[in-house]
Amino acid sequence: MKKIIYLTLALCALCVMIFAGCSDGGSGSVTVDFETDGGSEVDSVSLDVGGRLPSDYFRTGSNVPTKDGYRFKGWAIIEEIEEPDEPEEGEEAGETPTPEVKEVTVISTAKTFWEDTTLTAQWVRRITIIFDLGSGVSGDAPESVAIDENTGLGSKYPTPSRAGTATIKWSFIGWFNGGAMYAVNTPIVTDEDTFTLTAQWEREEEYRPANAQSPAIHPGNHFVEIVSGGTITDAKTGVDFTANGLFSNIEKGQGVLSSKWYRTTTEAEANAATADNPKGEVIVTQNASAGSPHELSLPFAWHEDAAGEYWYYVVVTNTNEKATSKKQSSSITQNRLKVIVSD
User: Fold this and answer.
1) How confident is the model at residue 242 (pLDDT cuts 50, 70, 90)?
2) Can you tell me the distance from the alpha carbon of 102 to that of 122, in angstroms, rounded to the nearest whole number?
3) d(Cα 64, Cα 56) in Å, to the nearest integer?
4) How far apart, in whole angstroms, are the C-alpha atoms of residue 32 and residue 76?
5) Which domains are assigned to the chain?
């Protein structure tokens, strides 16, 4: 009977000790060891039971390991788990070896440690991307960048430019490796430490003449007597006083036309006028529309003048901003239109 009483008291004392150890939050300390898997060493650390690692052990900090060619992802607890295989037909359980199965649990700064623990560094391999502008292309290529394997360039995707000439323009198509095009988010997979991307270009030839081409014009040229306040009609003159078909025969649609009607009061002044040095005053101006910049027609609208003789002519100008030297060229009607206004 006494033995039973002593045994009962011993068990009660043991329970009290266990309860006391739990109720005070856990006394003592635990040790956390670090396995860096080929990275720089990290010293073991002693923590209070239930304690946490300082933040400088995660991602950035003095206790974060480094490894050439890799980026540190964090710490993990790795546990080996035995999972027996299902025996094949004719085999007894336990005859086949049990494969090694590992459970990887990545931890965070919130992890609390209640026992001695070994943490293993987790790494992701880095690839250095080298950019090549292509054979025969001058200029500085974009600087190399490092990215995680199996990821794309993302915001590190560069868009280079290539110098052209007066007649040739180059457009960047994209980055290629072995015939495959790599877009912004195309994953890059390789066993090598470096990966070269070569730029491909599209050549655009652009016609850039030295001088703007002179426009061709064909307005009417007739003598007519106009009574002040009257109108010009086919019945009176026998012709249509419309300068139409003003056009510029421009290579590849380059150039924009504009025209002006000039008026002089003497024949000598009218005859002395040239395309580059017109005489008299401008009475009508017309610019070609955006929809048809290479053709325009300008009806002759006589100016209501006092009685007298007047001479009219047209100057048409072609403006070609792509010309490398002379960007404007003008033409003038060969003849002059004489108008007599009588009271």
Assistant:
1) very low
2) 14
3) 7
4) 12
5) 23-82+98-124 (2.60.40.4270), 126-205 (2.60.40), 223-342 (2.60.40)
